[in-house]
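We modelled the chain as a single entity of 214 amino acids. Its sequence is:
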Amino acid sequence: MNRIYIVLIRAHTGLARIGRLVTGYPYTHIGVCLDPSLTDFVTYSRRFHNLPACAGFMHEKRDYYAFGSYQCFGAKVFRLSVGEDAYRRILRFIRQCEADPQQLFNLLSMATMPVLHGFPIYKAHNCMSFTAKVLELSGLFHMERPYYQYTIRDMDQLLEETCIFEGKLRRKNSPGYAAYMQSFPLYRRIGSGIVLTGRLVGRMLTHKGGNGNA
């Protein structure tokens, strides 16, 4: 059997704080780890800390979460044991997402989740849909809804019996931290949001019925 780890993250960002105030739920981000060191988090997220709308498939590190003066971050870790066939399916999915330059961050589904409960866009994921797709491919759970309709809280409940840790993970420095934390002018931050939204809307119009799979 092969093990994978699903990690819920209590992010320190301003958007995460707003999310916690609105929902009353502590975790605002989710990712997948393929090894027990919990140092490489595979997910869909911002590519730069200061450029939130420039986002897509990411390998995030601990110091991306415990940035600046923070020395740790809140996390909840689940450990899954999956068979060989399921593990190969999961690895194939991850590699397809990583290698595909057309992959986008599904901001529209994430932003409207409380009202529309998630919807797919062609070759687009966010942290929730990506992780839920991994759970679907694992074959370990009965998923009553399409994967893209699962929230972080939903997956927390679904995985409850496989939890192995809840607490704080300490920061570990990574080589990519300085590049991740670089600053950008306001016009770049606004412009990246407009570009991403336009590309997502374009795909909704030209790939009707297309799902977010790689």
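As a brief sanity check on the tokenised model: The chain has a mean pLDDT of 95. The two ends are 25 Å apart (CA to CA).
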